[in-house]
Amino acid sequence: MPVQPDPLHTLPEALPVKLSSLPRQYSVQTGNNCLPQLGNACRAVIPPDAKILLLTDTIVAPHYEKIVRDSLLKAGYTAVVTCTIPAGEHSKTIEQARQIYTLLVNAGFTRKDAILGLGGGVVGDLAGYSASTYHRGMGLVHVPTSLVAQVDSALGGKTAVNFAAVKNMVGTFYQPLLVYSDAAVLETLPPDEWSAGMAEVIKYGLIESSCVPGQTGFFEWLCQHAMAGTLKENTAALITRCCALKIAVIEADEFETKGIRFFLNLGHTFGHAYEALSHEQQNHPPLLHGEAVAIGMIKAVQLSVQLGLFPPSVLPKLTALYQGVGLAHCLCDPFAFEAGALLKKMKHDKKNRDDLFIQLVLPNGRPGQVCLKKDVPESVILDVLRLPG
Ligand SMILES: NC(=O)c1ccc[n+]([C@@H]2O[C@H](COP(=O)([O-])OP(=O)(O)OC[C@H]3O[C@@H](n4cnc5c(N)ncnc54)[C@H](O)[C@@H]3O)[C@@H](O)[C@H]2O)c1
Ligand SMILES: [Zn+2]
Questions:
Q1: DSSP 3-state assignment of 261?
Q2: What is the largest CA-CA distance in the chain?
Q3: Rg of the chain in Å (alpha carbons)
């Protein structure tokens, strides 16, 4: 029998995800201070005699590994093995996955057992990749601990490792049995990682009505809370709202074949170019992915304004929002990047399926609404790349 929840801790809200592929349905549970109840939630999807590999990283482990392990033991699991990988993107490799396979083999894990990924997107992507390939697929639970992972990477079933210096080169689509998010764990997240996650949150505000037709208000909600300085205390609500939007997109376009999932790419075609150059050039510190997306969204809005698709009056609101979430440094272009070099990177973006055109998601009409554009002249894109933030 699962243990009764401790009434002192908030029970998470469960959002169902319905899919055409297995497991057909799973839930994304979001709450505040709900981590100690994780074991109970797992009991609904993982049999009590299953072994669990608790995969985490060196920064997350000291904060939360014990809480998670204790919760699993309390819920009746007896075989919980922890694997702690070095924190950071450089751990997202086939070599790291190979070490996980070795550990799974040595500990006698089978298909009925599970991997529980406790960490940011790096741990989540590696946990997902390893779980999807070991024995052709074993149980997977995501317990995302960064804002990026809670609103983005833990949802959607994409798993990956980096290969041959290309990010996410090798991967699978593999859905978890459960996603379990506790907003309270973000208290230990470094401020720049929180701000980078907020860029993805703002993205949801700018694509909301295109994800869920008729739904509006998230962008305004964000602006109001940023102005009032009340975003942090509303983090759980904010995460739930983003998850509901991403779930709507996944349900409508599970395998990225219908064009709907592409909306999630707002700011990313521009952003990937800034991100890549910041890693190549010595004159700028490497940008976090979210920071690059924040710059990319400004560029997308500027381009929409230039094309007459979007009211210029939204730009100051977006600027104020960036200032409120610690992304003000993503407003001061030109970032020492040359427009021609950025355009070249944009043309070779992996998500740009058609090499001849740059496919862009652009704000359209009002915040929340976007459109897909393939025919923007390069000269106009270059003009926008040269504009200050
Ligand atoms: N699968 C997808 O759909 C998808 C989507 C977006 C991003 N991603 C991937 O996610 C990764 C980025 O995710 P990320 O930003 O979470 O990076 P990350 O996992 O490297 O986490 C960022 C840093 O924060 C630390 N951290 C995480 N949670 C913490 C906490 N609660 N307290 C203190 N420190 C904490 C981590 O140890 C790490 O140092 C990239 O590899 C990206 O490719 C995948
Ligand atoms: Zn992103």
A1: helix
A2: 65
A3: 21
Other CB atoms within a 10 A radius of the CB of residue 14 amount to: 15
User: The dihedral of CA 144, 278, 261, 385: what is its sign?
Assistant: positive
- For residue 216, give both structure tokens: 């509006």
3-class DSSP state of 67:
helix
Strands 52-57 and 25-31 turn out to be: unpaired
Contact of 201 with 151, CB cutoff 8 Å: yes
Strands 158-163 and 178-182: unpaired
Give the side-chain half-sphere CA count within 13 A for 46.
Answer: 34
Q: Ligand 1 atom closest to Cα of 122?
A: 19
Read off the tokens for 302. Answer: 């500027």
Of 192, 193, 247, the one to substitute when testing ligand 1's pocket (max ligand atoms within 8 A of C-beta) is 193
Summarised one tens digit per residue, pLDDT across range 245-285 is 999 999 999 888 888 899 999 999 999 999 999 999 887 88
131 by Cβ neighbours in 10 Å (0-12 / 13-18 / 19+) ranks as buried
For tokens 């390939």, what's the residue? 133
Backbone angles phi, psi at 167, to 5 degrees: -65, 135
Kindly give the distance from the C-alpha atom of residue 135 to the centroid of ligand 2, in angstroms, as a whole number: 30
- Which position has the token pair 């055109």? 357
- Single-letter residue type at 28: V
Give yes or no for a contact between 78 and 108, defined as CB atoms under 8 angstroms apart: no
Nearest CA to ligand 1 atom 11: 121
Check: pTM over 0.85? Answer yes or no. Answer: yes
**Run of H or E including 119:** strand 114-119
Nearest CA to ligand 1 atom 41: 122
Q: What is the pLDDT of residues 110-133, one digit of tens each?
A: 999 999 999 999 999 999 999 999
- Using the atom order of ligand 1, give the atom closest to the CA of residue 171: 1
Q: Does ligand 1 lie within 6 Å of residue 176's CB atom? A: no
Structural contact between residues 52 and 104, judged by C-beta atoms closer than 8 angstroms: no
